Structures are given as C-alpha cells and as structure tokens.
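Quick one:
INPUT:
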C-alpha cells in the first residue's frame, strides 16, 4: 500500500507540476484596453445573423449525431461543402507547392506581382482551400492580385510542426513564384482565420527572427493566440459563440491541467511555445496587422491580449471588434451585412499600408 501511495503521489506531482510548467506566462496585464485602442462596430443584421447560425447548425448537428470516431470526417466534409452553392467571379487554379496541395485564386485581370498567402482555419484539423473560397475570392478582389491558398498538413494525422513548416515553405515559394511562373513578388500579404490566423501570426515572428522579407501587411480574422487556454472569454463567451461553443463545451468542463497535457500529446510540442501561442513571443518589429474579432466569441480575449502586447512592443496593430456576430463571420459574405463591412475595412487597411 505504501508503494502504491508513493506511486500515486509521484504521478500527481508530475501531472500538476508538468501542467504548471505548460501554463505559460500570466497575460492578464494585457486585458485592459486604453481609450480608442479598439475600433468597435455594432451588429445590425438580425436576419443575416440568424441565417449564418442556421448554416453553422447544418454543419454541426450532423457531426454531433455520429460516433466520436467518425465526427472529424463528417466535419471535414461538411466544411468543404458549406458554401457549395456559391458562384465566384474568381478562377481557381490547382497546383502543388513543393509537396503541399494549393490553389491560386485569381480575380479578373489579376496583378500577378501582388500576392497574398491565405491560411485557412478549422481548429488545425479540418478546412481546406475549398472550404474558404468565400474569403479567398473576396481577398483576391480586394487586393487585385493573386491569392495562394494552401492545404497545409492537418492534425491528428500530422504534427503541428508539419503544418507550420508547410506555411513557411509556401511563403518562401510565393515570394519567388506567381501564377505565370517564376517571378519576384512586388507586394505580399499574409492572411488567415482562426487556426490559420494563429499560423499567420506565428509565421510573422519566424520571418522576422530569420531576417526574411516580411509581408507588407497581415490580416488575422479571429486568431487563436494562446493555446494554453488562459483567456477569460473562453469560458465567459461559451454560451454566446454558436460555432466554437457547441464544439468545445465538453472540453471546457475538463481541468485546465488535463487540457494542457492533451494538447501536448496532440500537438507534440508545448502550448506555451511562441510557435504555438504567438501571444507569448516577442511581438516587436512586426509588419502592420489588422485583427478582426467578435465581442461574443470565445477567442475575443486572445485577440485583445495580442493586440495590446504587440502595440506595447511598438508594432502597428489595429483591433476591430463587432458585437454579437459569429466566429469568422466574414465567411458569410455577401449575405451578412457585417461581413460586407468587415471586408470594406480590410480593403481600406490594405490600400493604406500597400497602395496599388
């Protein structure tokens, strides 16, 4: 019995001691926003909001009805087909960047030297260039250039590092190659949503640290910046986030220590590493960044903390918050008025930082 008790004690020490080390630094100092540091927008499109929630339910409800082992496959198919009814003015040209499947998204009369790397969201485990064509087609229209959307390697089949490496390789390739072949880029943007925005922000810091050419600007839509799950809005907004709430509700009931260990096993690297959680890294000397988030979503405080810390480090970051809208509501363009407004703000931002 004594040996068993000692064993249990050792396990508990390792469990909670390890979880403490995995927690990362305390970021509560970045919760407070100074006057005028956030651009706020009211949500007024009630009908469009209800339609967006209904479309999300068409994705989530079938997935929740199947056994857990089948859920990811159902969600992946559902995401890819969520906007199958849409028609686009842009053309989509498949290609392979190294070993990574991708597609060029080209508006009519695209400027081949003005390029955007787009990294899709989907909790690092789902999503593809196909699922995010609403966003990439609109970005191509806004920039007047070519958008490269990549199908980076997903979890759980691959490690997080594999997806990160795919993003860096695609960016390096984009600098030297356009839709017509080998040619240097004149203007470069990086953009992403949710998990893809996490990858985009992580990429910015990596590029800076390796003295590579930085993009002219970046756009992060509802980025997850802290995978140690310390942001207050993760629980405070659980009931008001119709996308992330239903998916994460059961997980959020677990102790944070358990979630940190689960994350370590799934991602194969600690969540507190800046490569995983951009909030914990050095945020100085970054290019202009536009962050858009919803006041009602679970990732709101991830966005606020990142913006506050980056601005304190001297990086030019703008944070825009909309009331009530769903996570990554921009994907409901053009039906949702707030999505049209968000893209208008993205358009203004990119034209200010990198005029055509």
């Amino acid at each position: 019995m004594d040996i068993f008790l000692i064993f249990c004690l050792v396990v508990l020490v390792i469990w909670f001691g390890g979880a403490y080390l995995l927690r990362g630094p305390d970021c509560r100092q970045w919760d407070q926003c100074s006057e005028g540091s956030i651009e706020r927008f009211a949500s007024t499109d009630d009908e469009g909001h209800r339609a967006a929630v209904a479309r999300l339910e068409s994705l989530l409800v079938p997935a929740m009805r199947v056994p857990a082992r089948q859920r990811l496959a159902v969600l992946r198919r559902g995401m890819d087909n969520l906007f199958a009814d849409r028609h686009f003015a842009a053309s989509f040209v498949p290609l392979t960047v190294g070993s990574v499947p991708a597609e060029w998204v080209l508006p009519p009369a695209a400027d081949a030297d003005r390029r955007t790397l787009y990294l899709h969201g989907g909790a690092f485990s789902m999503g593809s260039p196909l699922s995010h064509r609403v966003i990439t087609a609109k970005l191509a229209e806004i920039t007047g250039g070519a958008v490269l959307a990549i199908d980076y390697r997903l979890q759980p089949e691959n490690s997080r590092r594999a997806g990160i490496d795919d993003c860096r390789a695609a960016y390096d390739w984009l600098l030297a190659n356009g839709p017509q072949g080998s040619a240097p880029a004149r203007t470069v943007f990086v953009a992403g949503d949710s998990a893809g925005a996490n990858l985009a922000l992580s990429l910015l810091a990596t590029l800076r640290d390796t003295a590579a050419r930085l993009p002219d600007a970046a756009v992060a839509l509802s980025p997850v910046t802290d995978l140690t799950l310390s942001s207050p809005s993760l629980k405070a907004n659980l009931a008001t986030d119709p996308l992330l709430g239903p998916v994460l509700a059961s997980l959020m009931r677990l102790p944070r220590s358990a979630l940190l260990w689960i994350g370590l096993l799934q991602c194969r690297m600690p969540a507190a590493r800046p490569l995983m959680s951009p909030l914990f890294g050095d945020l100085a000397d970054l290019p202009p960044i536009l962050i858009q988030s919803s006041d009602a979503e679970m990732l709101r405080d991830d966005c606020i903390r990142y913006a506050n810390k980056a601005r304190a480090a001297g990086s030019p970051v703008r944070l825009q918050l909309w009331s009530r809208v769903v996570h990554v509501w921009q994907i409901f363009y053009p039906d949702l008025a707030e999505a049209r407004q968000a893209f208008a703000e993205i358009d203004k931002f990119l034209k200010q930082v990198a005029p055509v």
